[in-house]
Amino acid sequence: MQSTYPLIKKTSIAPASSAPESSIETRYRRQIGLILISPWLIGLVVFKLVPILASLIFSFTDANLLTPFEMRFNAGRNYVNVFNDLNAVDGFIRTVRLALIVIPLQTAASIFIAALLSGRDLLMKGTMRVLFFLPSIIPSFAATLMWSGFVNPSTGWLSRLILSPLGLGSFYQFSTWETPAESLFIFSSLWAAGPGFLIMMGAMQGISPDIYEAAWIDGAGRLTRFFKMTLPLISPAIFFSLVLNLTAAFGGGILLDRGSYYRTSFSSYDSYVTYVLFDLFHMGYASGLAWAFFLFVLVVVLILFGTSRYWVYFPDREKGE
Residue 61's beta-bridge partner residues? Predict the structure, then answer.
C-alpha cells in the first residue's frame, strides 16, 4: 500500500556564515566621522587630559612658575599643607556651607517653576519658559553686580523705594565688598535655575496623564498627587540635577566668584587655588589644593550614587528584578 504521507527530502543546513566584512562605504563613513570629531579629540587630549595628568604630577612637587627648572619632589607634602593652611580650610568651609544652601534652593526652585509651567490652564507657556530661562544666560558675577546696584543706599531703586520704607536697612551690606554678601549670592543663584527647571519640566511632561486621572478618581488631591506621585516619578531628573548642581557649586561657578579678586573673607575654594597659582606662583601647592578638593567631590558624588537606590525611582531596574 502506497503511503499517503509526503516524502520529506533531506536538506542539509549550512552553518551560519560569518558576519560580512565592513564595506568600503562603511569604512569611508567611519573615517569621515573620525576626521570630523578630530578637533574635539585633539582639544580633549591636549587641553584637558594632559593638563590634568600634569597637575597630578606637579602636586607631588614644589614647582614654582618663576623657577620651573628647580622643581623637586616633596613626597606629598603639599597634601599635608592643605590641612594646615587656614585660608584653604576657610575657603573649603565657606564653599561647602554655600553649596549646602544653594543646591537645595536651586533644586526646589526648579521643581516649583516646572510645576507652574506644566499646568494645563497656563497661557503663553512658550513665552514664560523663555523668560524664566533667560536669566541663566547672564554671567553670575554680572548678576551680582547688578543686584548690588539695586540695593545701593544712594542710587539703588530697590533700596530707596522698597527697603528703606520697610526699615530693611541691613540689606545695605549687599552694596559693599567689605561685608560678605552671602545672602545676595544665594538669592542671585536662583538666576541659574533655568537649565534645572527645563530638566524637571521634561520629566513631568513624560508622566502619563492616566496615572493622575486614576489618582484623582481615588480621591487624591493636588498636594497628594504632587508629593506622592510627581516627585517620586521625577526622582531621576532630581538626581541628575543634584549631580550637576553639585559639580557646579564645588567648581565655583554657582558661588558667583569667578573673575573677582581673592579676598580671605569672601572668596571660595577655587578662587584660593587661582590665587596661589597666579599670584603666588606656587604651581605645586596649587595642584595639591585642586586634587585634594577633587577627591572630596569624588567621594561626595560616589556617596550620592550609592544612596540613589533608596530614593530614586528607576523603572528599568524594577523590571529587571
Answer: 73
Contact 232, 170 (CB under 8 A): no
Per-residue pLDDT band at 40 (split at 50, 70, 90):
very high
In Å, how far from its chain's centre is CA 135?
Answer: 17
In tens, the pLDDT along 21-33 reads 558 888 888 899 9
Query: Is residue 61 helix, strand or coil?
Result: strand
Which SS3 state, helix, strand or coil, does residue 76 take? coil
Residues 47, 26: Cα–Cα separation, whole Å: 31
Cβ-contact 60, 78 below 8 angstroms: yes
Cell numbers placing 123: 497661557
Would you call 209 helix, strand, or coil by DSSP?
Answer: helix
Helix ranges (DSSP H) in the chain:
24-44, 50-58, 77-84, 86-117, 125-133, 140-150, 157-158, 164-166, 182-188, 194-205, 209-217, 222-225, 231-233, 235-251, 269-278, 283-311, 315-320
The closest alpha carbon to 256, from 168, 164, 195, 174, belongs to 174
Q: Considering the entire predicted model, what is its pTM?
A: 0.73
Q: How many Å from the N-terminal Cα to the C-terminal Cα in the chain?
A: 60
Average pLDDT over residues 268-291: 89
Provide the 3-class DSSP secondary structure of residue 11: coil
Cβ(292)–Cβ(56) below 8 Å: no
Angstrom distances, CA of residue 199 to CA of 12, 127, 241, 307: 57, 17, 8, 21
The grid coordinates of residue 229 equal 506621585
Q: How confident is the model at residue 257 (pLDDT cuts 50, 70, 90)?
A: very low
- Alpha carbon distance 198, 153 (integer Å): 36
- Domain spanning 86-320: which superfamily? MetI-like (1.10.3720.10)
CB 94 within 8 A of CB 185: no
Q: What is residue 2's predicted lDDT score, i.e. its pLDDT? A: 47
Query: Could you give the 3-state DSSP secondary structure of residue 73?
Result: strand
The residue written with cell numbers 478618581 in the block is: 217
